[in-house]
Predict the structure.
Amino acid sequence: MQRDIYDEDHEAFRAVVKEFIRRYVTPEKRKQWDDDGQVDRETMLAAGEHGIIGLSVPEEFGGAGMLMDYRFRSVVNEELVRAGAGSSLAGAVGIQDDLAVPYIAHFGTDAQQQKWLPRMATGEILGALAMTEPGAGSDLRGVATTAKKVDGGYRVNGAKTFISSGRTADIIVTFVKTGEGNRPDAFSLILLEDGMEGFDHSKTLHKMGFQGHDTAELSFADVFVPEENLIGGVEGQGFVQLMKNLPLERLSIGAVAAALSQAALEWTLDYTSTRDAFGRPIGDFQNSRFRLADMATTVDVMWSYVDRAMRLYAQGELSADEAAKVKFWCTEREWEILDMGVQLHGGYGYITEYPIARAFLDARVHRIYGGTNEVMREIVARAVTGRK
Ligand SMILES: Cc1cc2nc3c(=O)[nH]c(=O)nc-3n(C[C@H](O)[C@H](O)[C@H](O)COP(=O)(O)OP(=O)(O)OC[C@H]3O[C@@H](n4cnc5c(N)ncnc54)[C@H](O)[C@@H]3O)c2cc1C
């Protein structure tokens, strides 16, 4: 089904992304990212030069001003995923543009925006978002990392885990307790910077997928953070700030799920037309044809849904429950599509040299992070039943 969400500007930008991929996303680079468990800085800077990172940074700070328009970001996802960089560069760019920049662009003080956003637009400064802790993931009110007020700033103590880009990031938007109890106004977001005394973000976690993108544990041992690093400059706003940005994070996961499903369909169509069994291409068996028909139809429906959500987001009308629906529904369909793709590849579908195998491993986390799909269903159920 022809999508109607893009115009000539998006297609011109797609050509830029493709040219960037031709030059910078080579098989050697992808191998290097997998071996290193992270994307190198030169590539991130090149992404900045080509306008592939920094899309969500406002124009006055050197970005593309697309914070409320996800279409250009979706073009980046689609092309990077198709090029086999979904688990490396696409992840790194997504963390910067969808998770880190928005907190500073939406809620940062003028000084915070001026200090960080211009260099985030160029890829010189990389950001991350740290909410999850060893003892608290779905239930964020259970976080135990504290930021206690002291003269001129805060002393931060605690730990975070599973933080995407956590090792490579220069600045980390960190969810902390600045008050007592677990009321929403007991929490704040504060910027931790690489190099602060007592701040360790060097421990990398080993994952089943997303090999080319780092996921880290962070620890804070009496870290002094100056008060100018409190996002927005007012304590107690952290929960509200998270709630405002989480729909974007969930839309972005839905959009990546659609992009990966589309790529899986393309890889599977290609493979089944060239692999023979019993004297004919395996794609000619009725079972294969029906599976391909299922995949193609599901991909169309996913895009219709994601495109509609992108439109709502641009109008400022993508509610928490609508974003939760997009996140859980798209990632569940993605999982089915990738499983079909692996099956149609036979044994090669299990070999990580093949993009379908890697995509299968990468996609598993889409049902877990950004809020698990069970928690997404809870949010939706609350909205449809009106009961907690
Ligand atoms: C690769 C990766 C990258 C990540 N990146 C980041 C990041 O950049 N920043 C960040 O802050 N976090 C990140 N996370 C953390 C992720 O968001 C959490 O893992 C997720 O929110 C789940 O939290 P948890 O792991 O503590 O699981 P738990 O909350 O312990 O959940 C365990 C199980 O219980 C279920 N459950 C919990 N509560 C309910 C409920 N109310 N109803 C029904 N079922 C429930 C869950 O659905 C799940 O199945 C990342 C995780 C991974 C694996």
User: Anything to note?
Assistant: Residues 282 and 288 are 7 Å apart (CA to CA). The chain is about 50% helix and 15% strand. The radius of gyration is 21 Å.
